[in-house]
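Input record (one chain):
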Amino acid sequence: MKKRDTELILRVAHMYYEKGRSQDQVARVLGTSRSNVSRMLSDAKRLGFVQIKIVAPITRHDTLSSQLHEVLGIQDVQVIGTDRSETTMRSVGRAAATALMHALKPNSIIAISWGRGVEATVVEVQSETLVGLKVTQLMGGLSSIATSVSAEELGRTLAQNLHAQFIPLLAPAVVSNSRTRNTLLKEDSISQVLEVSRRADIALVGVGSHGSASSEEVLKQFRLNKSEHEMAASTYAGDISARFYDANGRSVSNEMDNRVVGLTLEELANIPHVIGVAAGNEKAQGVLGAARAGLIDTLVTDVACAREVLKLATSVKAP
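The corresponding structure, as predicted from the sequence alone:
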């Protein structure tokens, strides 16, 4: 295609889609026919000059949100319904992305974990013009889990979408013993990144839960012996950033915690605004434990998870 033809198609697309002019108006400006304008608009879409994205409105369930707010004591609860045009996780991710964008201010530091909920959020974040933004990780990588998207990959994508600086934590999330972890923490390249994470203004975390596939995969990374694995598996209610906690949000194992390269649950709770993302009724135990420990300030979840959390919270009291 000749350069002048491309420029004409782009000009037509600009007047029609961005300036809001009708095809007749565009035709009069260019001294051509309406049919030619229509053809050029079709060419603009075919050639990829114009891309149309249909975004369904986010459906929030106010009654369930209010009930969870009262029961859990979480500052902001958003229970999201699913539109027929998209999956539950995408709907939840879009709502979490909106919550993140509303929380951002110039020079904010955002620290993230990993998981499907975080991934669904990151891909929905739109470009932002705020200055001085930084993105980093709450934990090292879980690259040994074949199906996972690592915190480093998600952090890099989020930084690109926000035009922010990315500060990666180039270390594994789980190491073989506490001595190795302590050695890694003495490395400036790791300790300095973790210090940036501790100073984060916002954390974006996925919430794991007892019995969910993602949590079981993380638990396997510790390579515990049979009795240790059975004890942890029978005790934990959920996990965030490879930190496993019980029904009250308390750590289930100091030995496991001492092998994690990342922020502790207490350090996470100290971050001013923690956005937790969870979808599916299997995530209910993890959400309930995180809420009881005060780990989350904004919860974005779906109807299935919300109903299961209410069922657990009102039928079983924490020990």
